[in-house]
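Aim 2 progress update. The chain analyzed this quarter is reproduced below.
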Amino acid sequence: MATVSTGGSIVEECDPGDVKGLASFRGGIHMDTSGRLAKWVGRRCCRWQGVSCNDETGRVTEVHLPGFISTVDFVFQSQMEGWFSPSITLLTSLKVLDLGGLAGLSGRIPTSIGRLKNLRKLYLYGNKLRGSVPESISKLLKLEELHLHENSLSGFLLPTLGCLKNLNALLLHSNRFTGSIPASFSNLTNLMHLDLHANSLTGHIPQNIRDLQLLKELDLSDNLLNGEIPASVNNLTSISVMYLDANHLEGEIPFPSNYGQMPLLGFLRLQNNQLGGKIPSNLGYLVSLQRVSLENNKLEGVIPSSLGNLEALTELYHSGNKLSRVIPKSIGQLSHLILLTLSHNSIQGPLPNEMSALQNLQTLDLSFNSLTLNSIPRWVAELPSLS
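Predicted C-alpha cells:
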C-alpha cells in the first residue's frame, strides 16, 4: 500500500483487506439503480462514491450507500438487489456502515459482524435480511446507533444487546422477533430511542424500564405484550413519545402518580388493549400532551374534568370504551383541540355550551352514545373550523 505524502494527501491505494471486502460486497449485488457501484473500479477505493477513509492510515472508515439519495439538485430513491456479502467485515476500521433502505439487499447479518470493533453506526434497515441477529453484534461496544428495522429478521431479542452501553438508538421494529423484552435492556442507560413495534413480542413490559432515564421515544406497539403497564414508567423523566397500543395490556393506567412526572410527554397511544378502571384524573398533570388515544379499551366511569388542564392538546381519542355520565365543561378549555372522538360509549346528557369555545375543532365524533339531544345545538353550526 502506498504511504501518505507529507502534504497530508490521502493514501493512493487502499488496504488490501478493505479492497477485497468492498469488491466482494459489489460482487454480491446484481442490480444497483443508483449506478454507484459501477464506478467502483481500480484499487483507489478511497475515491469511490460512498466510501470515506482515514487520511493518515488510508483505512476505510465509512461506507455510505443509503437507498434514499438527496442532493441540492434532486431526490432519488435507489435500490440494490443482491446478497449481503460477509466480506464487508474485512473493513475492520469501519466506523459507519449505511446500507439502509436499499429494498433488495438479502441474506443474513454476517456472524463475523463482531470484527468491526470500531463501528459506531450500523444502518441495515429497509431490506430483505432474514434469520437471527448474530451474537457477535454484542461485541460492538462502541456502537451508538443500531437500525435493523423493516427486514424479515426473526428469533429472540439477544439479552447480550444490553452490553452495548453506548447505544442511543435501538430500532428493531417491523421484523418477526418473538419472545420477551430482555431485562438487560435496562443497562442501555444512554438510550434515547427504543422502537420494537410490529413484531410478535410476548411477556410483560420490564419493571426496570425506569432505568432508561434518557429515553425520549418508546414504541412497543403492535406486539403481543400482556400484563399491566408497570408503574415504573413514571420515572421516565425524558420521555416525549410513548406508544403501547395494539397489545394485550390490562389493569389500570398507572401514570402519572404525581404532578411533575413525565413532564415532556407529548404523544401517548394506549388504544386497542384491555385496560380497565377509570381514566385517572392525574392524566391532567401531563401538561405537554398533544395527542392521546385511549380508544378500544375497557375504561369506564366519567371523563375527568382535569383533562381541561391539557392546554397543548390537539387530538383526543376516547372511542370504544364504557365511559358514562356527561362530557365535562372543562373540555371547552382545550383551545387547540382539532379532533375529539368519544363514539361508542355510554355518555349521557346534553352537550355543554362550553364546547362552543373550541374554535379550532375540525372533527367531532359523538356517535353511538346516549346523548339527549332535542336538536343540534346552534353553536355546533357556528364552530368556524368544523369540517
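Residues 16-27 form the longest helix (12 residues). Residues 1-10 have pLDDT under 50 and may be disordered. These observations will guide the mutagenesis experiments scheduled for the next reporting period.
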